[in-house]
Amino acid sequence: MDIRKALFLCLLFTGLLSCTQSSENSANENNLIIREQGSFAVGGTVKENPGTFNTITRGPEGQTYHGDHAYVFYQIPADARQYPLVMWHGFGQFSKTWETTPDGREGFQTLFLRRRFPVYVIDQPRRGNAGRSMAEGTFTPTPDEAFWFNTFRVGEWPVFFPGVQFSKDPEALNQYFRQMVPDIGPIDIAVNVDAVSALFDKIGEGILVTHSHSGGMGWLTAVENDNIKAIVSYEPGSGFLFPEGEVPAPIENSAGALVATGIPMEDFMKLTKIPIIIYYGDFIPETPDPNPGTDGWRARLEMARLWRDAVNKHGGDVTVVHLPEIGIKGNTHFPFSDLNNVKIAGLMSEWLNEKGLDK
Amino acid sequence: MDIRKALFLCLLFTGLLSCTQSSENSANENNLIIREQGSFAVGGTVKENPGTFNTITRGPEGQTYHGDHAYVFYQIPADARQYPLVMWHGFGQFSKTWETTPDGREGFQTLFLRRRFPVYVIDQPRRGNAGRSMAEGTFTPTPDEAFWFNTFRVGEWPVFFPGVQFSKDPEALNQYFRQMVPDIGPIDIAVNVDAVSALFDKIGEGILVTHSHSGGMGWLTAVENDNIKAIVSYEPGSGFLFPEGEVPAPIENSAGALVATGIPMEDFMKLTKIPIIIYYGDFIPETPDPNPGTDGWRARLEMARLWRDAVNKHGGDVTVVHLPEIGIKGNTHFPFSDLNNVKIAGLMSEWLNEKGLDK
Predict the structure, then answer these.
(1) In 3-state terms, what secondary structure has residue B320?
(2) What is the dihedral of CA B107, B111, B116, B120, to 10 degrees?
(3) How buried is residue B300: exposed, middle or buried, by Cβ count under 10 Å (0-12/13-18/19+)?
(4) Which residues from chain A sit within 8 angstroms of residue B150, using beta carbons?
(5) Taking CA atoms, what residue in A is nearest to B144?
(6) The pLDDT of residue A29
(7) Predicted confidence band of residue A11 (pLDDT cuts 50, 70, 90)
(8) B-chain residues within 8 Å CB-CB of A136?
(9) Which residues belong to the signal peptide in this entry (chains A, B) (predicted)?
(10) What is the residue extent of each domain of chain A?
(11) A329 within 8 A of A314, measured Cβ to Cβ
């Protein structure tokens, strides 16, 4: 690091107390050095009522409405690496997924800033800070957290899985449940893909990091936009894309059948042009299990392996890492915010390095 | 700054190229030096369905629901000043209010980080990233942007006010309209005040910065929580609190009557214990005007002055600054993100300094 180099030289040549003071304060190596940060909306559509707006009566005539954009918060560190990381949340989640962990530690947003990557976190259209939806919606607060506790494989409600990488402090679970937000109107895959593609049009080449529901949308976005140079996908849930005619049979599981999608070969081939890595955590049964919370993931992991084989057969570079198989135990559906998330970040860093994506 | 001091000494004693390289990169004085950043939910309530959750059938029984918290994103700079700034958005807005301006420059979030204040930006309960509401809601996308263009005093739709401090680049207006989000369920003042008060319980003493609708909620929060050491309020819109028996008559205006609120004297007196400054921008008519977009602000400015007089009569320290009166022209309802927002930030800095709040 340049600061450390400067301070080393400063100490070497001067030995002054002020150097060490500086090192302990603003030049502390634990500080984040941010060159630029901010937020913006990207993508979306506009509708306009016919007629002319009347200043006094303020009726609907002639008024416009902008919606269905994504909201993006970004930070660019000093001495930034070439490719930014674009982090896209999963179902029911928003950018918080990548921010502070439920137990209050740094999430991938800040961990990867420390690793000198520009980081963009998204709220997809109709979600969180991108709530200005083009579609009507209704919302009813419905107790559903035991469902999510099980589906996110924290445990079997209300009991934590043994060895799970999740804090037993009740405040962690409080934060975890509060990091969900509703959809405003229906989820529209095409709207989401268009907005994230617009983001890559704006920022240029980068690396897409997806989670769960954004996994499938991420493949579609990479088909649409050549600026996506690689994908890191944590526990993609659905929407695996196969060439038409090579779509595998649905995989039955106790949460329902997991169905793959067929797309034209020409589109599919775009997924063979970029390196892709997929990670799955622990507590996924090896054989059919009556608990749909875990059994759904058995099907998804199996489908991910079929997909890997299909892409690689056509010349692609897809890796599936089932974390327990490499000795990393206890991860939930959110490996990037689990207690061992620094180790998980390390795996991602190593892979990006192997692929020459961290220059 | 310590880094600059270290580099100065480094240059002085060594004259090495590496010092100047460092200065241009990570030690660049334009960089933000962040000691810590993150996000969390604060406040809120929990409900729980009776019964026992069934892992297989996953019905409603025994499930919980956490909602009505605020969402907070915070950054603490190196060498931080004592009091953090807590920035609370207005009606229809979220934390974006304080982030990048519609025309792409730094907003108050980053400007005040540069001035070494810890900065907390809020999404109030049922808004934006705090969308997990305890109340039912429906949403219909309704073209309303001419209404907001006028009410926020950017101009008289579609014409900008002459000399308005707002970019004429169409992309600025695009970003401006997209920085709105709907409420999920009704706005509940008590829920909002409780959540922001819980934030001050968590972080300790600090300064509350409000805008428009959060102005009135800010007074209520200061009545509830002694950790609020000062309030900076941009264009407070409603909810001015007077002692019962001293409530002024409603102020008629072409947007409707502006009604003040009476509270017990004991509560009111808490507002006399902290310094408070209020700013209003330009384009506010001096006499009744048929345009409700601007005339509502005539009433609010008048009420703010009555309120200042009431608080100060009881020993308080409230200042109302109507920006055009001190020669600062062209500001909209969003002075902190207008084209001259660095000057507006300067006024706030000076006031905090005068009051000894920037140590």
Answers:
(1) strand
(2) 0
(3) buried
(4) 55, 58
(5) A63
(6) 75
(7) very low
(8) 138-141
(9) 1-27
(10) 1-31, 34-354
(11) no
Banded pLDDT at B29 (limits 50, 70, 90): confident
CB neighbourhood size of A24 (10 A) = 10
User: Per-residue pLDDT tens for B328-344?
Assistant: 999 999 999 999 999 99
Residue B23 in this model has a pLDDT that exceeds 50: no
Contact state of B22 with A2 under an 8 Å Cβ cutoff: yes
The Cα-based distances of A9 to A17, A22, A32, B6 in angstroms read 13, 13, 21, 10
**pLDDT value, residue A108:** 98
The residues pairing with A319 across neighbouring beta strands, listed in sequence order, are A277
- Contact at CB, A96 and B145, closer than 8 angstroms: no
- pLDDT digit string (tens) for A279-318? 999 999 999 999 999 999 999 999 999 999 999 999 999 9
Question: To the nearest whole percent, how much of chain A has pLDDT over 90?
Answer: 92
What would the two tokens of residue B117 be? 């204040």
Q: Write out the DSSP string of B49-105.
A: -SS---TTT--STT-EEEE--EEEEEEEETT--SSPEEEE--TT--GGGGSS-TTSS
Strands (E), chain B: 32-42, 45-48, 64-67, 70-77, 85-88, 119-123, 137-139, 155-156, 159-160, 206-211, 228-234, 241-243, 261-263, 275-280, 317-322
Q: How far apart are CA B98 and CA A252, in angstroms?
A: 48
pLDDT of res. A313: 98
3-class SS of residue B208: strand
Neighbouring residues of A325: CB distance < 8 A, sequence distance ≥ 6: none
Topology given in CATH for the domain delimited by B34-354: Rossmann fold (3.40.50)
Per the prediction, chain A carries an average pLDDT of: 93
Asked if pLDDT for residue B14 goes beyond 50, the answer is no
Q: Where are the alpha helices (DSSP H) in chain A?
A: 2-14, 17-24, 108-114, 145-151, 170-178, 189-203, 213-224, 265-270, 292-313, 341-354
- pLDDT value of position B291: 98
Question: What's the token pair of residue A337?
Answer: 């915010």
Longest dimension (CA), chain A: 74
